[in-house]
Here is the input.
Amino acid sequence: MTVPRVLFVDDEPRILDGLRRSLRGKRRGWELTFAGGGAHARELLAHGSFDVVVSDMRMPGMDGAELLSYVSRNHPEVARVVLSGHIEPEAIIKVAVASHRFLSKPSDVDGLIGVVEQLLIRTSAGHQSAARRLAGAVPAIPVLPQNAHELNALQAPEADLSRAVRLASNDIGLTAKVLQLTNSRVFGPRPRNSSVESIVHAIGLPMIQSVAAAGQRLWPHDPWAPGSATLLETTWRHAVATASLVEQVASPANRPHAQAAALLQDVGRLVCLAVGDGDGTADLDLEAGTRDGVPFRDVGVELLHLWGVPMPVITAVAQRDTPQRPEASGLGVASALRAAHLLIQETDAGDPVAGTHPSELGVLLSHPQLQARPMDWRQAAEDASRHAELVACGSGR
Amino acid sequence: MARILVVDDDPSIRSLLTDVLKLEGHEVAIAVDGLAAVRAVEAVDPDFVILDVMMPGLDGFAVLEAIRRLEGAPVPVLMLTAAAESAANARAWAGGADYYLAKPFTADAVLDLIDGVLAQEVRVGDL
Here is the structure.
């Protein structure tokens, strides 16, 4: 195995010395490189391959956000961490789009090592570096055409928090970004298992408006690959329907993660279908569900991992297409998502790519956790499918 | 590591769970009856609750009901019953339990559940 290479960037020699000293004893397995500024860091990146870059935000000349944006465009395979002192609310958005993870100074060295070690793990079994490169380049998830109108309305003077909650709970990109920010402790301690709804309430309307606006600014008007319109529509409707149904399928404490996983289940597909200005370099195979030969799901899971989304959400998304055999002790998040997904597959909100699995669904529905509830699950799935259609109609015009 | 609340009137179960959880590095709070359990959930704000069903006074079902009425993010609850009794099982699920084990259970079964629920970060070989 090659030695992991980590690049630290800070304009204060004192900070770099401190990092060098505290990491020396702890990390024999890493090759550490230190740069005193953005220009030096760019030079180093051009001449050597790094796994992770950890940068300060406020630096003279090229600041951290500028440097990390440069890295995301030119070295998307390098994971990006901001290590910074207090960040003004206005700068949070810059951090959120430039970096994958955020650490505040002073940060204990174990916390820093933990985050870097995390980012050294590549989740894709068969396409480690290709999945990292595709996922690493993504600053935000582009807005789906179906949700663009709602997102614009969020910026209107009469927009309120309840609209923001409704929008964020149905928007794949906002859900992902909000989870990334909260789990990086940008807004304080890491929440246990908060729903997107409660996070939106906690961070407030102006912050959600900024996050949404940044997501829209980062992509050209129509970044989607030619011929993908129907697939985008299907993907979104399936995600919204599954999220609505899984709210009833999952147990109370697993519900927030299950809903997030439902909404994010095909985030990899969205990311891969967003080809930007369409320079023709993306090798997309819609039939096989791959970009540059990497399965959409691998890219999505790697993205969620880079963004530090909670583990139960990542596991559930990773196992969305894996047959589940839950223990009698409980469905957990992954089996709840799989059950809701398979139920929705039998409705109009089904995803034609994924197919139906009636016998597995039968086993899941006979689980004591679901048997104990007086529910007609197929009827609930039809209702969720209709709900998703209404959401799509409501926001499309 | 996590803060875990163990609720059981049986001292042997309490000490077994406390020992294995502490060995894993968890912080353990104890409640010996239902009333103390409801108070402890509010006072301790645990990351995970292990809740026995059969207790004198306020039983596990009543405690679960009270916990689920609390505001904020719902705490994960594992319910334990004395026998593999399907009525208790169904009642636990209907009452909003997240996990369920029938006694006798193994310490490993409990630890695996807690690990899966509380793991925040991806580990090698997990996916």
Chain B has a mean pLDDT of 90. The first strand of chain B starts at residue 3 and ends at 7. The two ends of chain B are 22 Å apart (CA to CA).
